[in-house]
Amino acid sequence: MKNFEPEIVAFCCHYCAYTAADMAGSKRLSYPPNVKIIRVPCTGKVDALHMMRAFEKGADGVYVAGCLEGDCHFKNGNTRAGQRVAYVQKILEDLGIEPQRLEMIMMSAGMGERFARTAFEFTEKIRELGPCPVKPIKK
Fold first, then answer.
1. Looking at the whole model, is its pTM more than 0.85?
2. DSSP H helical ranges for 1-139
3. Closest to 97 measured CA to CA, from 55, 137, 65, 128
4. Pick the CATH number of 8-126 from 3.40.50.720, 3.40.50.960, 3.40.30.10, 3.40.190.10
5. Average pLDDT per 10 consecutive residues for the chain, totaling 139 residues
6. Domain ranges in the chain?
7. Which residues, other chains included, contact 10 with Cβ-Cβ below 8 Å and sequence gap of 6+?
């Protein structure tokens, strides 16, 4: 699907991943415009329902981007988020949806380049997978 532009939802921790996205912008590093960032106080606040709802609302791929391991501002929120991502990946697989459409990514606030690179790489991976089989019903 050459013309397929995936919709990506990125749940980003306020302290690290969102700041890294801001740094990417400050450094004028571009990343795909189809990556929609949702700032959360901590990735530990991202529930399985939020991830599944993103797919239900039309996302082709979702990633949860939080602090580096051991550096969570809320102690272990990123660890809890990683466990939830693994849980939802299993649900996706049970539903016949590629679990690679969901990822947990960890980065620090100073990793603007990594944020931009991750956005490009994840978008390309989802582009190769094609549209998500779960698409909202248009009324």
1. yes
2. 17-26, 48-56, 77-94, 112-129
3. 55
4. 3.40.50.960
5. 86 95 92 95 96 95 94 90 97 96 96 95 95 75
6. 8-126
7. 17, 21, 35, 36, 37, 38, 62, 63, 64, 65, 119
